[in-house]
Amino acid sequence: MTTGVGMYPSIGAATSSVKHALHDQIATALAAADEDEVDVAFGFVWPAQWPDAVSVNAVRATPGEGTTSPQRRREITVYVDVSIVSFRVTADDAVPHDRAYGLLGLIDAHLREDPTMAGAALWCFSDELTSDGATDETEAGAGRLCEIAVTYAARVIVTR
């Protein structure tokens, strides 16, 4: 339940709404780009239907410094961990790498068009990213995998 753009009565309401909104924005971004062969879900999908997946995973929140106002409003940054995975039957690590980063680009471009995620936050952008960049030869099997772990940061206001 929101009480205005990016405003919530509790930290629980804020974190849940931001996670749902980010999931919805990811699904919308991929659908708008005709990327209908990508699994998009809360948590990891198993078994996967497609060789590409975007998983909306852990969420955490931290208060901004000195953000408590006389009305007891607090600015909070909500962090949502997202995993983007691409697998391809190939010996070339660049193939799934390019695909995974292409999906990330679509998602980020969509969020820049509406950084409030339809009013769920004051803003939301990708904040941190890690990726191994190559498939371990002992685990390669019949293909190559690229996983991007990206954290999105969204600013909200908790009113109580």
In short:
The chain is of the alpha/beta class and 160 residues long. The protein has 2 helices and 6 strands; from the N terminus they run βαβββαββ.
Helix and strand layout, with pairings?
Elements: E1 7-8, H1 11-32, E2 39-42, E3 52-63, E4 74-88, H2 94-113, E5 123-131, E6 144-158
Parallel strand pairs: 1-6, 2-3
Antiparallel strand pairs: 3-4, 4-6, 5-6
Structural notes for this entry:
This protein is α/β, with parallel strands linked by helices and 160 residues long. 26% of the residues lie in helices and 36% in strands. It is built from two helices and six strands. Strands 1, 2, 3, 4, 5 and 6 form a six-stranded mixed beta sheet that branches. Helix 1 (11-32) packs across helix 2. The radius of gyration is 17 Å and the shape is elongated.
